[in-house]
Amino acid sequence: MNFSLVKKRIFFLALFIVFAVVVFALNFDMGAMVSSRQKKNDELIAEQMAYHVGTLAYLYGYPIVDMHTQMHNETHRLDPDQQVYAAVNRLYRYPAIVGPHTAGNLRAPNNDTLYFSGWFDVSSQPLIIHTPDTADRYFTIAVTNLYAEVEHIGRRTTGTAEGYFALVGPKWHGELPPDVKVIPVESEQGWLLGRMLVDGPDDFDTAMSLVNNIWLAGLSEFTPGKPPGAPGEMSGERIDPRAGLAFFDVLNAHLRDLPPRAGEEALMSQFDLIGVGRHHDFDPQTLSAGARRGLERAIVDGEAIVQAATQRTIPDYNGWMISREIGRYGFSYMHRASVARGGYGNLPEESLYPAMVFDADGELMDGSRRYRLHFAPGQLPPVEGFWSLSAYRLNDLQLEENALARYSIGDRTQGLVYNPDGSLTLTLQHEKPADDSANWLPVPEGRFMLVMRLYAPTEAILGNDYLLPRLENVPVD
User: Fold this and answer.
1) Percent of the chain surpassing pLDDT 90
2) Domain 321-474, CATH among 3.40.50.150, 3.40.50.970, 2.60.120.600, 3.40.50.2300
3) Which of 327, 248, 463 has its CA nearest to residue 335?
4) What is the rounded distance in angstroms from the CA atom of residue 46 to the CA atom of residue 294?
5) Which of these ranges, 91-100, 309-318, 371-380, has the smallest mean pLDDT?
């Protein structure tokens, strides 16, 4: 036997075994490295996708989640002293003309109308709204869906004769009683905010009797001319899902129920990628660590974007800031969210709210100064409803008590004195003028904001053919 040849074979066999072991070990290490790198990449993708898509979902869903929150908190008895409470498909009627001590949770409220509000749910059947004959008195009911988009029932759109209107959801099929006008609603839940014109304390009882004669009834409980009975109260705990992952839970639940909107298919597909779209049942317990971090960041930054959007500069005309993009938003999700953050609003053709915070010198308006607003002959605001001017504290947008108990001035103010040429000059200051108080609007002592209300503005206002006059600074003697 050739021992030398055997030794060589044994040597090469051993060398092969060592080489195989080394290759296996290297492959194992490489596999582990690849697996580790892939895991990190997956977590990075999950976090960044959740963050970026989640931020957009936050902006998109802000009014949906905000209205869900308010609906729960105003249709459940949270505490005995709760101001605004009414069961679903019923109305709450504010019991007084808004003043410094009766504004409740309203921001920059008007002093010209009586408010009434309610939350509707037409998932099982239509909701019928009864409105009385107001004898041409101005009123409006804003029907707001979960997308914060609005349509109106009232003098401008449906007249002031007695009427019945049925809110009908997208899934309902059936027949309504005769003489009931259909109002299709895109979402099965939403908000009603009504306003009834009131001409001061002497007119309160008449205006309130009309508000009390506006009522709601589900189709199954509807009898013409007969309001339904009051349902039992529902108690509950206050909720606020807007600051945590519950935001996406609420948004997802509504998206799975809301009908798809044209042009949003690609957006909904992106929402599906992070588990909050209409084809998923969102469960925060199943989120990866990266996805959770991303969504939590999205909530923080989404809220910051909404807050910043509410402070954007609005185009001004003669110093009056006017936003005409209310109630119809299309794909402007950030703007929609910022409006919802401020409290929703009417369509511009129903009412416009020019606002002012800076005087003619570019300074914040202050009650220590004096101002004048002069309407030239024939240049009073051209409206088919009414116009009025109010002043609010700038820090909290509330009315401030004054000796005259006057919180708005406008075309219905008794005793206004017009100049010989037909022009009108309004005096705006904190202290009572020395001459007379007929045309005086008391303003808060400190910094304040002016809001002009133009109800049922004409095309001249909507198209900027008519502009409100500039506010004038009056020298102090």
Assistant:
1) 79
2) 2.60.120.600
3) 327
4) 8
5) 309-318
